[in-house]
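Input sequence (149 aa), recorded before submission:
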Amino acid sequence: MAFRALCFLAGTLALEIVRDGEGTTKVLLVRVEGARREGEAVMIAEAIARSNLFKCAMHGGMPSWGRIAAAAGSSGTQLDERKLKVCLGGEMVCENGTSVPFNQRKVLESLSKKGVDVLVDLGIGKGSAYYLTTDLSPEFVRLNSDFKT
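Predicted structure, token format:
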């Protein structure tokens, strides 16, 4: 019980730290499932979460699963793009590595919220991980490039 309470507290604090980022407008939860191993899932989730192109797309509310796939592919792990699935806000936008018809209104609505859920399923194993990050807004860039030393 104490371990669960500690995990809950740590998760809550992590979320608040991310949410408090200067100039950010969205918190992005990048979840990776179906990796061969947990370590690979972590590498892929981190590569997506650190991708400036992905973060800009999320700021602009652009459902570009291609940017997500490209970031996953740059992680240094082997992927089978034919098994790749991507869901934005609970709506599948990519299955078996290709676009699928989706409810654009629902996806755009979910991408306009302050919290965005991004799920990437690799379909090759049981490894999973998640990563919290933020969007990349012009205000974030302005605030963080305006320092005078």
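Checked by second reader. The radius of gyration is 16 Å.
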